[in-house]
Amino acid sequence: MKKLRLDPLSxxxxxxxxxxxxxxxxxxxxxxxxxxxxxxxxxxxPGPGWWLGTDNLGRSVLPRVMxxxxxxxxxxxxxxxxxxxxxxxxxxxxxxxGGYLNELIMRVVEVLYSFPAIVxxxxxxAVAGPGQLAALASIVLVTIPLMTRxxxxxxxxVAGRDYVTAAVISGARLPRVLGxxxxxxxxxxxxVQGTYALSVGISVEGGLSFLGFGVQPxxxxxxxxxxxxxxxxxxxxxxxxxxxxxxxxxxxxxxxFGDGLRDRFEPRETRSLV
Amino acid sequence: xxxxxxxxxxxxxxxVTLLGISVLIFAALRLMPGGFAETILGPFATPEQKAxxxxxxxxxxxxxxxxxxxxxxxxxxxxxxxxxxxxxxAAxxxxxLPVTARLTLLAVAAAVxxxxxxxxxTAVRARPGGGGGxxxxxxxxxxxxxxxxxxxxxxxxxxxYGLQTTGYLLPAAVLSxxxxxxxxxxxxxxxxxxxxxxxxxAAVARGETPWFIVRHHILRNxxxxxxxxxxxxxxxxxxxxxIVEYLFNLPGVGSYVVQAVGRRDYAVVQAxxxxxxxxxxxxxxxxxxxxxxxxxxxxxRA
Lengths: 274, 302
Description:
The structure holds two protein chains of two kinds. By secondary structure, chain A is an all-alpha fold. Chain A has a single domain, classed as MetI-like fold (Orthogonal Bundle), CATH 1.10.3720.10. Chain A is built from nine helices and no strands. Chain A has helices spanning 8-28, 61-97, 99-114, 117-128, 132-159, 162-169, 174-210, 222-231, 238-265. By secondary structure, chain B is mainly alpha-helical. Chain B folds into two domains: 2-75, no CATH class; 93-301, Orthogonal Bundle (MetI-like fold). Chain B starts with a helix and ends with a helix. The chains are: A mainly alpha, B mainly alpha. At the A-B interface, helix 3, helix 4, helix 7, helix 8 and helix 9 of A face helix 1, helix 6, helix 7, helix 8 and helix 10 of B. Chain A: InterPro entries: BP-dependent_transpt_permease, MetI-like, MetI-like_sf. Chain A: Its main location: membrane.
């Protein structure tokens, strides 16, 4: 295993992400207090006792944001794991085997890809009923087409390499060829696309919950908090500023980390013109 | 001849994709709990009333028969009648299209006019200290702010300071932040890819100025991915910018279709999704043609 070297910006992104995970873990032990406890007057601006202000019920916003980050990160990463597993399986199979199987898989991917993303998510929510499961399924369906296409493209490139041919000639069966020779060589693509899928997932969860089809209150997610805060936006802007800032920070740090991963796994020559 | 065959195959696969979408959407609508009759008649409807309503709209037939009738009608350009408003779906969608089209046009224009130069500059100045880093961070931030977060913020600022909220400029601005940033990032990647090619080395050796090199040797060669992205963004926005329409109270295509999902207005959802997907596919085909014209190497490779 080669050592993973990253540039400072990506490391900063990673550090930021870890900090958010820490915040989410903190909410498990109520590190900043019970997210459902009423701690003070309603709609108070940030101050001692409620560092991000209080909401319309007098609950402190900070523990709610911590719970929200946890919900959002957990949902999105669970969904991305499902996407990664499915894309890896289908993408590698389609890219290596080609033929009818490839046609079939790519047609299905094309159907999902041509669906307007947010409408797809709303339809899923309508079928499954609004909630965490709907949010999870939506993220999977929205992120799977792009990832499968790119994994397939990477697998096509790997399939023609000599070491794969050598493995086939020496009698390796399909699962062994795919698992031992093709998959490890497309793992970089999966990792890079996985990080991007995570940031898309967070955005989809947010949007869906914001429209009222995703995570349902009283459970907090970043989308839920921004939706609820919207109602009292004029009197208490901190209700959307806190969760909004955390949301943007989460997506930005993941994207920056993803860029670093990409530069690491798909290095290329660069040059400057001026 | 080979090219003709290729395009025929492309048309066929597009048709298969659309068919797949229509099956998926049909199945999804029928799987939803709570049918059209419940939505219209309320919870106290008698079974007879429900049956009568279902019969009137042909919902008492088997799903397969419904699908067959619908597909045959769509083949003749008839997208059915909204079960709520009793107006032809095509007319209702057409009435909402100008709103969506205007938003799309503004956002895409901004993406091309601002995103492409931004991308070129950040690529050409990629050397540390060249000022490219700032642009890169800015566009990274731009693709990291979800529409609903940025939109909420804009609505807040606008209403707090009593600014004008009607019109298309603000919603289009919210949409264009992502579009501009994504375009800038893709342009940067594409230009960086061209920069390392040998003909650029040759141009530098001939002593051509950077600006001349950009115009004559880079833009055309880097156009492919940028055009593809522009087409994707255009198609995506034409499918309905749901969240922005919701935030700014705009009667566009997206909010219409999602409202129809809630009311189980089957014909509207089916038509809306199918049209959005068709736009997506047609845009992709168009852009492949366009890319072939701008960069003939890519056209021949197809």
